[in-house]
Amino acid sequence: MTTLFDLTGKTAVAIGGNGVLGSAMAKGLAEHGARVAIVGRNLEKAEEVVKEITAGGGEAKAFQADVSSRDSLIRAAEEIDQWSGGCDILLNAPGTNSSTPFLELEMDEYDKIMEINLKGIVLACQIFAKRMIDQNRKGSIINISSVSSTTPLSRVFTYSVSKAGLNSVTQYLAREFAPNGIRVNAIIPGFFPAEQNRKILDEERIENIMRHTPMNRFGEAEELQGATVWLASEKASSFVTGALIRVDGGFGSMTI
Predict the structure, then answer these.
(1) Structural contact between residues 246 and 252, judged by C-beta atoms closer than 8 angstroms
(2) Which of 238, 240, 11, 237 is nearest to 135 (CA)?
């Protein structure tokens, strides 16, 4: 069983790996032997995550990229190829949010959220999956979705729409890439203390969330590591693709 989750010799690219959730998942991959490329728009934050990984005995390097820019992602992919020779695991964890009411929503804001949460992940999948195929690598793509993707949440219209779209992208690409030995899955986190949801967590909303979360608490970022490492491991999840894996404290099982 100890070798089932061994990622030694694999390179993981963590886009959005400089965020709260992305960095925790990237650290989990590193702890199981993967070399991890931390990719983010804020290079300074990415380098801080690298320092934490290397301090724990892992191997990592920071790369700058804007997920909404194809040229930026291609440049990062080329730099990662030079560093490690390719990509075996793609973790797509960028994200942004807004609480603007629907009738007040401007299309500039809508486009910005969709560019990061959906278009950016589509671009990353295009660029890195193409490299996996060209290099004849069996790979794993892990997209980070949200509980709002299946049951839209109040106050986060565009975010919910983008994550619903991401679920569809995940399942479509699972079919598209299966003949190439590339698995595509998504993790659906519940409520975690990430930057993009703190600004909408007032006392009333927290009470509502707890009423709908059987475990009656928020998740800790490290609790996403298990699902991430499992989906990344070719041995542990070799027959898993197109799956939407909930890590939500039971939120998705609640009705009234």
Answers:
(1) yes
(2) 11
Q: pTM score, two decimals?
A: 0.94
| Bridge partners for 189 per DSSP | 247
- For the chain, the domain total comes to 1
Range of the domain at 138: 11-248
Mind telling me the catalytic residues?
A: 159
Q: Which DSSP state fits 2?
A: T
What is the number of alpha carbons within 13 Å of residue 134 lying toward its C-beta? 10
Can you tell me the distance from the alpha carbon of 173 to that of 149, in angstroms, rounded to the nearest whole number?
17
Tokens encoding 207: 């009470």
Q: Over the stretch 202-231, which tens digit does the pLDDT of each residue have?
A: 788 888 888 888 999 999 999 999 999 999
Tell whether 3 is covered by a domain: no
Task: Examine residue 1 and state whether it is found in any structural domain, yes or no.
Answer: no
Q: Which of 82, 87, 94 is nearest to 17 (CA)?
A: 94
CA distances from residue 57 to 31, 32, 50, 109 in whole angstroms, order as listed:
8, 11, 11, 41
